[in-house]
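>> received
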Amino acid sequence: MDANFLFMSQHSSESSPGGSFFGRIAPRGVPSVLDLVRLSPEPVFPPGGEALYRQIGLFTEMRPGQEILVAACGRGLTTAYLAVNQGVHCIGVDPDPQLVAEAEQRIRAMGLDNRITFETASLDDLPWQDGVFDVTVGEIALGAMADPAAAIRELARVTKPLGLVVLVQLVWSGNVDEEQRENLLEHLGTRPLFIVEWKQFLRDAGCVDLHVEDWSDAASPFRPVSGPMYDLTKQLSLRQKVAVFRRALGRWGWRGMRGALMREQEIHNLLSNQRVLGLSLIIGAKWHPDGL
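>> returned
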């Protein structure tokens, strides 16, 4: 995968202690993209890259002294980026204790443990009181490991009145029948939604003045330009590719790897030619009874 998607190495639907609200999307005998990339030795930035998170910082007017929450933070790359580049104090939360431990280790090595902290917690039951954070950010993996509606309600709950709730999420951007959609869900390991669904979740959580930006144009694993795992092979060194392959082979065996490759052709057509999947930035302001 490219540098804009390898963050998926941070998450797997099977890694959530409580399991996904949607159930295990991919058959456990066949690895999903999310499963495979999770085996990458080195985490890199999520979809949209630093440009997207720079835009989040600018649009939300993040500044020193603010408290920011990043939900489904994984290994903490975006958490660290926002703390360093916006001067804010960041807290990352993820239900996977292994990923949180890795994030904490990275932050200590960077000397940022006085500005960034991490918590292990369910995304639909956050361990903070109401109205704590100036901005909350829901990463893509939020939809893979929790009920997204409940998780967004929790993000809004812990956001201060007049604060902002930010979603970076996959969206369906083309027509696809139910069978094709299910194949895509198995392939990706997470569940995109229509933009109207994400917006409704925000409204139901008490957010208003919604702002939406389409970040689908950049090349990504959602729209591969050649064969299976094209961006992954471009991104990783030979040693890293071998490491991923060995780990995947040990977990799923030859049959699982063969099954993953066999479905690549249909997936390639859907993502590259029909362009059924996109990436959106969705921001809402938490309503306050005194008005915005």
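>> The chain has one domain: 6-223+267-286.
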